Predict the 3D structure of the following.
Amino acid sequence: MDVGWRDPKELEIEAEIVIADYCNKVKPIKDPPIPIENIIEALFGLQLEIDELNGGNLNRDIFGCLYMDEGKIVVDTELQNQEGRYNFTCAHEVGHWALHKNLYLQNRMQIPLFQEEKKPSIVCRESQKKKNIEFQANYFASALLMPKEMVKSILKQRKKNDFTETFTDETLKFWGMNKEEYCRMVASIYNNQFGVSVQAMQIRLEQIGYLKQEVSRVLI
Amino acid sequence: MVKDFEEERDRILKIAKEFGDKIRKLRVDGRNLGLREFAGKIGLSPTYLSKMERGMDPPPSPEKIMKMARELSCDENMLLALAKKLPPDFKEAFTKSKVYTKKVPEFLRTATEANLTAADWDRLIHELKRIKSQEKK
């Protein structure tokens, strides 16, 4: 399935709608982590399963898949004990459900009515993350698990500590770290609270406009 | 032979499916607990729980089922019966002594054959307690 480009701002709104829906229909969310499993099962009424998706293939490329007609999300068994990646995969599949379901239904005519074995509508592979459809699901997942306002308010609470979310050459020199190391360190303060990996947290902070390198204001 | 095997397999699958459906219903509709979240609370692998809910794996041990019942706020005997498992203290009663090993099954068989009603059971239990308390005196 091929999808066109979509503005990340729209994806951000789509994720906010899901959160608002959950708060209205199921249970208000006050603090992170976002209850992604409950969003899948209680809000959307989808079936969530954990299963072997890579059939013993050592190169574990498939991390999740979605069955549109059955309303079923399957996460690869390898991720069952990796909280961050598990949650992100769940949220990624919710992204496909929320963003691409209509498009799938429109194109469904092309799919044969009787299939011997039911095949997933969307199979998500690590190696295809650059495709539009996968990019959108990833951006959506990021916005869903780390809502902008929630991240901002948590950053505000933490303002007392020594790390700043915008940094300069001077900051890096002070910590004796390069840019990458510094960003990873800041992300690692917050990632557990949101139930995501350090990498996902880092990407989100950058998306929101934190973790930005600024020019030193030290006078020469 | 083949027919026996198939019947046995169908019977086991049916138990697994009924038990799995019930757990999923109680977990999602009753308590709004996530799959991985619930597995963590019980001490089961999330993959196993997921397969068990679909009837692709058999129900867990009686101890785990009782833990599930507590988390899901439902009657543990009901869940054990659905999984066709015995409460762990039944085993204790059966193996407590030679007398118990002989008498417990005999007692249960007699009671089952007698087709006792709920009121009969209550009377029987009451009587047992009375005998015991009289002995003490």
Notes: The interface with chain B takes residues 26-27, 35-38, 41-42, 48-52, 77, 80-81, 83, 86 of chain A (CB under 8 Å). Chain A has a mean pLDDT of 88.
